[in-house]
Every structure is written in C-alpha cells, then in structure tokens.
Amino acid sequence: MIDAHAHLTDRRFAGDIADVLERARKAGIDRILTAAEDVASSDEAVALAARHADVRVAVGVHPHRAESWNATALSRMRDLARDPRVVAIGEIGMDFSGRSSAPRVQEAAFRGQLALASLVELPVVIHVRDAGERVRAILGEAPGVRGMVHCYSEGVDELPAWLALGVHISFAGTITYPGSDAQRAAARRVPADRLLAETDAPYLAPQNARGRRNEPLYVAATHAALARERGAEIGDLAGQIARNARDLFGERWGT
To 5 degrees, how large is the angle CA 217–CA 219–CA 225? Predict the structure, then answer.
C-alpha cells in the first residue's frame, strides 16, 4: 500500500516520527508522500526524506499560506525541486472556506506554482475546498500540467470535469465517515487508473480512529473502504493504486 498524501513535518509528529514510519512499514505501507505548506516545511520535508528511504516529498505553498508566496519562495522551491526525493509541487490550490488568504492572493500563488511545476516538469498536488469551479478553470488554462486532487470532497457531478483535466483523484479517511455518501458515490466512478488513497495525516483519521491523531498506518482503512465501494479485492486495489502513484510521480517515486 501507499499513502499518497500526509504531513509528516506537522508538529504533532515531532516527538515520534520514526515510530510512526516504522508502524506504517510493518503494516505494509511502502511509500508515503509528505506534502509541504510553505518554504520552511518544504525544507523540513526534504530533510526528513533524506533520513527515510520510503518518504517522498511535494514542495510548495498551501493556500492557507499563500501570502508567503513571493520571488524568494519561488527560488527556493525551484532549488528543492532538483532533489531526487521531490516528486511533486504541492500542496497548492485554492480554498474558499474562509480560512485562507484573500482569493486574489491564493490565485496568484496557485498560478505561480503551476508555472513552476511546468518549468521543473513535476506533477502538482492540489488542495481544493469550496473552490472547485475556479480551480478547474485555472487548470484548464495550464495545459500539460499533471497532478492529483487530494482528499476529494466533491461528488459524482463534478467528477467528469476533473477527469477531463487528466488529474488523479485521491480519497482520504473521510470516505469512511457516515455523512460521506457523495464521496463514496464518486469513488465508485473514478477510473481504476486514476485512483489514489491517502491519509492527510495528522488530520482526518478514519471512522475507526476518529478523534485520534491520524497517521500513515491508517491508510489501510481508506483502501478497505475503496475496495468495498468498488467491489474489488483489497490486494488488487492496493496494487493498482501503487501503480497509479508510480505512473503519476515517475521514476523518483521508485518501485
């Protein structure tokens, strides 16, 4: 199994990250993508991956931190993107839930990082919350950009527009929540070769661990939920998801 999106540099992992990763390995998780939120966490993520061979990195500025996107951040991200452990630009995107920077600031950071991804020939990891229509419009103006929509939060109706953009769709532990019928319906419709699974750890623990700190170990619950919804054997589905990640992130992801 793989965990296509986590935040291993979050302070909640500061005291036991080695144990967290060892638990994941013992559970059969052989690759984890840790996504950054700003320049500092991008640096930390690359350093973490240097110590743990099963960790890969997405560097970028999250929409919550969009005001920190500037020429200095661009230069640093471009430098970090040369590291062989960096497989994507992310977590980038737009968030209209009211917790992020002003929309115009988010859009400038998003467009700048899409351009960076094109320049360094890496896929993107996209955050979208209450902003799907705008994000899709911007992606439509950036032909050739590859990537994944992390923690898919929309439903079946929006799915064709995302798939037409060529992105992968990643589901988190939220798919196990009682109120997530729309996401479960979408999960049944995603083409097999576009499907990914993640934790978004330390956030969004699955239903059987809700209220606890999430960690990569729990991506097994997301795999199990996807297998149930799709009528698939979990081993077959895990293998397909691992291949999808390898296809999206390329040689740097590893085998």
Answer: 140
* pLDDT higher than 80, residue 73: yes
Q: Cβ distance 34 to 57 under 8 Å?
A: yes
Break the chain into its structural domains and give their ranges: 2-249
CA-only gyration radius of the chain, Å:
17
pTM confidence score: 0.97
**In degrees to the nearest 10, what's the CA dihedral of 46, 52, 58, 63?**
-80
Q: Cβ–Cβ contacts within 10 Å for residue 200, how many?
A: 24
**Token pair recorded at residue 25:** 């390995």
What is the rounded distance in angstroms from the CA atom of residue 93 to the CA atom of residue 68? 14
Q: Where are the beta strands (DSSP E) in 109-218?
A: 124-129, 147-149, 168-171, 195-197
Supply the CATH classification number for the domain 2-249: 3.20.20.140
8 Å CB contact between 96 and 137: no
Residue percentage of the chain with pLDDT more than 70? 100
Task: Compute the distance between CA of residue 12 and CA of residue 51 in angstroms, rounded to an integer.
Answer: 19
- Which residues, including other chains, have CB under 8 Å from residue 188's CB and lie 6 or more apart? 229, 230
Q: Is the pLDDT of residue 201 over 90?
A: yes
Name the β-bridge partners of 201. Answer: 6
* Torsional sign, CA 231, 232, 238, 244: negative
- CA-closest candidate to residue 208, choices 198, 195, 200, 217: 217
Q: Return d(Cα 38, Cα 47) in angstroms, integer.
A: 14
